[in-house]
Amino acid sequence: MNLQIEMEQHRGVLIVRLSGELDHHTSDMVRMQMDEAIQRRQCEHIVISLKNLQFMDSSGLGVILGRYKLIKQKGGKMAVCDVNPPVYRLLEMSGLFKIMPIYDNEGNALAELEVVS
User: Fold this and answer.
1) Which residue intervals of the chain are DSSP H helices?
2) Mean per-residue pLDDT for 52-81?
3) What is this structure's pTM?
4) For residues 106 and 81, is the Cβ–Cβ distance under 8 A?
């Protein structure tokens, strides 16, 4: 029941790295921190790295979809990367990959998003 969030700005892209468990206990904290970072920083796009995320439930899915809508309203794009198999399955079943691209790693996601920046 522990979650760590690390955020970094790379040019116009906000990189969010999540480690631990994104569930109903931690989703509000992630939502608030991401919203604050989006408002405070001049970011056009978001990359969410799930490399070290062991578990995610529907609350976590809601956080990702909500930030997707927020950045899309600003004309930006969002991508996820480094998704492990259990979390991948949840994202795939939810249909998330129909609206948002997935990349093998952060470098590929950044390269793709910066083409459109």
Assistant:
1) 27-40, 58-73, 85-94, 106-115
2) 95
3) 0.92
4) yes
